[in-house]
Amino acid sequence: MRLLSLFLIPLLPLSLAAKVTTEYTHTNECSRKTQRGDSIQVHYRGTLESDGKEFDASYNRGQPLEFTVGQGMVIKGWDEGLLDMCPGDKRKLTIPPEFGYGQRAMGTIPAGSTLVFETELVGIQGVDKDEL
Predict the structure, then answer these.
(1) Could you read off the pLDDT of 63-114 as tens digits, one per residue?
(2) Per-residue pLDDT tens for 42-64?
(3) What is the DSSP string of 17-76?
């Protein structure tokens, strides 16, 4: 049986090993960080890992994206990678296809792409400044 399991291990999907990589580029102190269910405002710049080509940026529009984190409104990599942040925090998220758009193309993003997002948490709706 052990010999059989050794042959099956290489057959496991690579997606089991895939994960979102988070680089903390700027951090702040606060007493209330982002949690699942928070409505947050995030500035971002999205590029393809393969060639660095920018495919979207809220900075270009001059308005952050607002959504409820942890509720499936955005790609899974954002739902996980933007938790436990303080306003003003900046993170670089490297998101494999399994946590992005998978094997489907999305606009100018090719199928199977690893995405890189530079993110900045602008605010958490309904959280008073003294709670931060």
Answers:
(1) 999 999 999 999 999 999 999 999 999 999 999 999 999 999 999 999 999 9
(2) 999 999 999 999 999 999 999 99
(3) T---EEEEEE----S----TT-EEEEEEEEEETTT--EEEEHHHHTS-EEEETTTTSS-H
Q: Which of 61, 115, 59 is nearest to 92 (CA)?
A: 115
Cα–Cα dist 35/59, whole Å: 24
Catalytic residues: 44, 55-56, 75, 101, 117
For the record, the structure tokens of 55 come out as 């495919």
Alpha-carbon distance 16 to 22, whole Å?
18
What percent of the residues of the chain are helix, what percent strand, and what percent coil, each to the nearest 5?
20, 30, 45
User: 71 near 83, Cβ under 8 Å?
Assistant: no
Torsion over CA: 83, 125, 68, 66 (sign): negative
Predicted confidence (pLDDT) per residue in 19-37, tens digit: 999 999 999 999 999 999 9
